[in-house]
């Protein structure tokens, strides 16, 4: 019920592409994403997902449900509605993703195109009585990748030829190299968290437990390196 207290740290990343949202989106084709504000109103996200209807539900992760959002011009994005019962506190997941990848642009990193952390008045039950409380929703918006996860393509399809496999392996390595150069460790790299575009170009996703290696860049210091 509490508002998000974390702030976005000032980051001076000299390596990597420009942080402008939507630049070069889908092979350089301009769309509404190029001018979309970083903070998106909750009502706007409800409208584009039919109020988070089951028909728009396209997947689930440990951190929340994924919905297909359709903009007025037909452009599709993915809206992740963070769950209260996720394995990591919702505010921490939200903070990690926004802080660590909002400013990053790389062909093998999924684009975070917007976010929302907004409260609404709702009647809730607490200690046996009903009260009016501010209930906060945390949402993250990404580019839409039509081919789904690497896991799905490996185990639910007829397989891939060698050239496609090599392209995916190379792309993942390029994405990891970029992340490590800017001081980010993903910590949850697996086939389910690699998404594929319609050209089978891989993009690393799900930065909910990612960490910055440089403690000066964030208040979330890594004590034990648990993954890649």
User: What is the H/E order?
Assistant: HHEEEHEEHHEEEE
What is the radius of gyration? 18 Å
Task: Count the beta strands.
Answer: 9
CATH level 4 superfamily:
Transferase(Phosphotransferase) domain 1
Percent of residues in beta strands? 25-35%
Mean pLDDT: 77
Our measurement of the CA-to-CA distance between the termini, rounded to an integer number of angstroms, reads 33 Å
Order of the strands making up the biggest sheet: 1-2-3-5-4
* CATH architectural name: Orthogonal Bundle
Low-confidence stretches: 1-32, 218-228
CATH topology: Transferase(Phosphotransferase), domain 1
How many discrete domains?
A: 1
CATH class descriptor name: Mainly Alpha
Helix content: 10-25%
User: What overall form do the CA principal axes indicate?
Assistant: globular
Count the DSSP helices: 5
Structural class: alpha+beta
Main pleated-sheet profile: 5 strands, antiparallel
Architecture overview:
This is non-specific serine/threonine protein kinase. This protein has 228 residues and is an alpha+beta fold. It has one domain (25-217): Orthogonal Bundle (Transferase(Phosphotransferase), domain 1). The protein is 21% helix and 26% strand. The protein contains five helices and nine strands; from the N terminus they run H-H-E-E-E-H-E-E-H-H-E-E-E-E. It has helices at 25-28, 42-48, 90-101, 150-155, 162-181, and strands at 57-61, 64-70, 76-82, 112-126, 129-143, 184-185, 194-196, 202-204, 211-212. A hairpin with a 2-residue loop joins strand 4 and strand 5 (129-143). The chain is globular, with a radius of gyration of 18 Å. It starts with 24 loop residues before the first helix and ends in a 16-residue tail after the last strand. The model is unreliable at 1-32 and 218-228 (pLDDT under 50).
